[in-house]
Structure formats: C-alpha cells, structure tokens
Amino acid sequence: MLVLKNVSKTYDKTKKAVDDISLEVKKGEIIGFIGPNGAGKTTTIKMITGIIAPTEGVIEINGVDISKAPVDAKKNFAYVPDHPTIFDAIKGIDYLNFMADMYDVSIEDRKERVEKFTKAFQIYHALSQTINSYSHGMRQKLLISGALLSNPKLFILDEPMVGLDPHSARVLKDLMREHCEKGGTVFFSSHGLEVVENLCDRVAMIHKGKLIACDVVENIKQSNDKTLEEVFLEMTKDA
Ligand SMILES: Nc1ncnc2c1ncn2[C@@H]1O[C@H](COP(=O)(O)OP(=O)(O)OP(=O)(O)O)[C@@H](O)[C@H]1O
C-alpha cells in the first residue's frame, strides 16, 4: 500500500533530515512511526503526502508514484497534520461537506459518517458553529473526522494524539483499529510509546534520519521483560 525506496531529504543543501529510508506498509496494517525530536518523522510524512519532494528516492502509494502522478496518488490517502490548521471562518459542517465533495462521497455515506465520527468525538453539537470558536482538540477531531469521511485506503496521521483528551484518544484508537479491520491501512507518528506498543502491528523507528528498526513490537523488544519505552531509550540514547 505504501512503499518508500531509498528516500532521503536534505534541507538547505547540507542538513540531511531523512537518510536513505526504505519501508513497505502492507494493506490492513497499522504502523507506528516513532523517533526522538528532530529524528525526521514529520519530514518523512510530508514527503509521503507530497507536501515536500524527496531529494532522492521513490514513494509509491497504492502503486502510484506520488512525484509522477500526485493527484492520482492523493486519491488513495487522507492525512491529518500535526497542527490542526484549518479555515476557521466557516462552520464545522461546511468543512466536512467540503471534504466530502472533494472526495465524491455520496450524500447517504457522508450523512452516516459525519454522524458516526462527530458523535463519537462529541463534536456533533458544535458543527453549526464556526471553527474559530473550537478548542484545539475540537479542531483536531474535526480534521480527523473530515479525513475519515472518504474512507481512505491509507490513513496517515502526524502526532494525532496530541491535545486529545483520554476519551477522544480512545475513540481515535478504536477508529484506527476499525479502519484496518475493514481493509484500510494506517500509518501514524507518535511520541506515545504505550499507545504504539498496544495498537500497532509493526513499529518503524527513526533516529537521526535513519530507519533503525521496522518490525513487530515483540521482535523490536527482543524480550518481554522490557517495555517498548525502555528499548526505545536504549536504541536512541546517542542523541
Ligand atoms: N524546513 C526545514 N528547513 C530546514 N531544516 C528542517 C526543516 N524542517 C525540519 N528540519 C530539520 O530536519 C530535522 C528533522 O525534523 P522533523 O520535523 O522531520 O523531525 P520530527 O521527527 O518530526 O521531530 P519532532 O518529534 O520534534 O516533531 C530536524 O533537525 C529539523 O530541524
């Protein structure tokens, strides 16, 4: 579903933020992308989503090279960025309808999905209000609901748990799992190692721009005596 082949990104000709990453995410998988601050997670996600171009390498989404056919590649995924920046002079429901229009979601499907996601996230009552009255968490939940409306093949989220209360974080985890169970694929970055350990099929770990592990949690931990957090701290201690 998602393939990265020898992908690198150098900023300002000297700063190598991502260094020769190769990775394959299969249909139906949920992958957690972890790494210390500045390791290259957001840069990688921005390349996957076509926001910035890699300096080297190839990225394919559902078999489509995003640098060669960006519009076709973008039809296959939805993305929730790490900051919920969103047009804020419009109402929540107008934003969701805009997203549904962009992805040709039928009237019946959008009604059902808007209700399902926004009721689960407890923002349904606020949809007729303008987004500038929303809290950070409400904006985040609106963005997530909008991204899920198209039932994307690949769901990409950058630090999605930040700013969510425990109830909303639980809802998001359930939605991510449900999305995979229905055949979708989820790729998300997180500093929440416990969430990653409990939720993900596999974990990809990046450190100083290099992919230092990509495997099921049990293999990364090597022994069940350790938590993912302990192994992470050990593997990334040379900051
Ligand atoms: N636009 C940019 N220009 C120059 N350097 C950048 C730019 N964006 C990111 N970097 C640098 O690239 C490296 C990787 O940054 P990135 O934001 O991808 O890390 P991250 O893993 O997402 O970090 P965090 O967990 O703190 O969000 C950092 O050293 C950062 O300073």
UniProtKB/TrEMBL annotation:
InterPro entries per UniProt: AAA+_ATPase, ABC_transporter-like_ATP-bd, ABC_transporter-like_CS, ABC_Transporter_VariousFunc, P-loop_NTPase
Coiled coil (UniProt feature): none
Domain ABC transporter: 2-233
PROSITE patterns: ABC_TRANSPORTER_1, ABC_TRANSPORTER_2
An example Gene Ontology molecular-function term: ATP binding
CDD domains: ABC_DR_subfamily_A (cd03230)
Superkingdom to which the source organism belongs: Bacteria
SMART domains for this protein: AAA (SM00382)
Keywords, in A-Z order: ATP-binding, Nucleotide-binding, Transport
Xref: PANTHER family: ABC TRANSPORTER ATP-BINDING PROTEIN ALBC-RELATED (PTHR42939)
The name this protein goes by in its record: ABC-2 type transport system ATP-binding protein
Native organism taxonomy: Bacteria, Bacillati, Bacillota, Clostridia, Peptostreptococcales
